[in-house]
Amino acid sequence: MRQLLIAAVLVAAFPASALGAGLVARDLSPQAPRRAVPTGVFELVGVHWRGPGLVKYRTRNLAGRWSAWRFFSPEDALPDRGRERRAARGWRIASPFWTGPSNAIQYRTIGRVARLRAYFVRSPRQVSPAKRADLAGAPAIITRAGWNADESIRRGAPYYADSVHFAIVHHTAGSNSYTRAQSASIVRAIELYHVQGNGWNDIGYNFLVDKYGQIFEGRYGGMTRAVVGAHSEGFNTGSVGVAVIGDYSSTSITPAARAALVSLLAWRLDLDHVDPSSSVVRVSAGNPRYRAGTSVTLRAISAHRDVYPTSCPGASLYAQLPAIRAAVAQTGLPKLYSPTVVGSLGGPIRFAARLSGEAAWTLTVRDQNKVVVVSGTGIGTSVDWTWDSTAAPPGLYTWTISAPQMRSATGTIGTAPVPLSLQQLKVVPGVVTPNGDGRGDEAKVSYRVSVPALVTASVLDSLGDTVATLFSRRRPAGENEFVWSEVSLPDGRYRLSLAAKDDRGKQVQSTVQLYVDRTLASFGASAPAISPNGDGRLDSLDYGFQLNAPAHVQLRILRGTVVLATPLDADLAAGPQRLTWDGGGLPDGRYSAVLSATDSLITVKQSLLVRLDRVAPTLRLASFRLLRFWLSEPAQVTVVLNGRPHRLAIKHSGFFRVGHKGRVRAVRAYARDLAGNQSRQVRGP
Fold first, then answer.
1. Contact present, 266 and 174 (Cβ < 8 Å)
2. Phi, psi (deg, nearest 5) at residue 77
3. How is residue 264 annotated by DSSP?
4. Residue 207: which residues within 8 A CB-CB, separation 6 or more?
5. 423 has which bridge partners?
6. Tens digit of each residue's pLDDT (9 = 90 or more) over 74-131
7. Which SS3 state, helix, strand or coil, does residue 387 take?
8. How many CB atoms lie within 10 A of CB 659?
């Protein structure tokens, strides 16, 4: 491998006291000469680069001493593809390295490196006693609040697996030279790098352990829940990732770290009743070693190198895993392992589990009211008991397997009955006007019922008495609707009532207010557009409507929601009505004509669109030979070919052609729009 003759030095421009904690990103040029670039004091460094080459570096501490040269190791603790990898797509990501307080870095590229970006992290110091989790049976764990996790930078909500099935042991591959007080800062620095540098949702590991035996909560989401991490690409789901802080390629972990790792794994695997000495079969989600869909047999406590092409957790720690596995298996006994349930409600259901030693066990099944439905007991090292649930009614049942001094196993069978509900009841329109004019003569009723039910629709008067039953029929779960088309009720205020009754006899009801009012009918206009320009063609239009009862009537002209004119505002008697409108001086454009009639019951509205257009269309003969024309707006075009007229309705502006067989000796044409404006005639040839 050829080494490029490239180097650069980055030196801090400010004293440590002048800079706060955080992450700083710097784009570096691989071709840059040796030079100084201000960076500030940092304690952890990582890089991203493009290209197949490598990057080596050394750092200078605050006393001016340079470290040995080392390579940035490509990050192998990764999220699964497609979840948190998008932000760094196309980049090679290095594992972060804890340098301790430093103020300069020297780097060299080896091979082809197209782009290089460095991340310098300074982590806050812990100034108060670390907060520890209060979890039954758990070892002392420093919570996220205890190491000052920055919850504001998390990029997404946690996601969960069905259970924790196995553990994966890592090392961070960083420095082993850190103090007990610095451990929390290291965890915080890794969080900043994983989130703000790599673009992940949160810190990748579920737990971290330092060489002093301190245990740190990692990824957010709950230490007792199966939080999916970003530590073992292809195998993050269903695993708990535990990283030992430091590099254990050739260095043994300390007795304190080993004891903490054993106690953490014993507790966390016991939460999900995993036997530390067992093996599990997991299906890869895809990584360079196991392609997606590959079934892999793994130990319940595996190393990162067992699932990914990496040396993690280092040769020394890997060699100690068999002894650690055996120690975990002997910690916290007695225990209950691998509870399983085979079968479904309505038939035989078999319960099984293993016990770490002979014990008296009890199996209990309770219904959703916590009443014991059935129970069984036994003595031995295994549980094997079958419940004949043929007579059990549908519902959600909870089972529990318990034994003295063991963590009980629990789960559910069946599904909780969906409670009956009737929601989203709507009537459109809310005012039914059954006067035969085709507007509002019928109403559409829509609603949502949670389970199949007998639904009855009734109309109630103001006293709450039923005056009409619209239907009563069984309806499926989900969205339903019906059309009330034969409205024979007199004008008045009513309530539409829907009652639903499920198969268990439970009943719910929902109501909505509606009106029946026939006062206003048949609102119409003599033309959809007018051209009030005094040429005698469509200078005005007539609005007409029918009042079936006396009412106060308003006709308003609106553009959007703004009222621009009110041609009519008067009390009118019942009967046919007519009003002429000449545009009222409004500019050309599209408007809404809204007619409202207010009687003793309610205000009823009908509306029409109207267009004011004083500009004549433009018609051009683009080609006499092809009979190709251009029109500025939709219009009716009259084309006279050889003295014979042809009328065409052109719906769009732009070019159009007129079909014709035979020789065309002469053509003339003109266009007239909806407002009666007529273009100039065009002629050809």
1. no
2. -90, 100
3. H
4. 141, 215, 216, 217, 218, 223, 240, 241, 242, 243, 264, 268
5. 448
6. 999 899 987 687 766 789 999 999 999 999 888 889 999 999 999 999 987 765 566 7
7. strand
8. 7
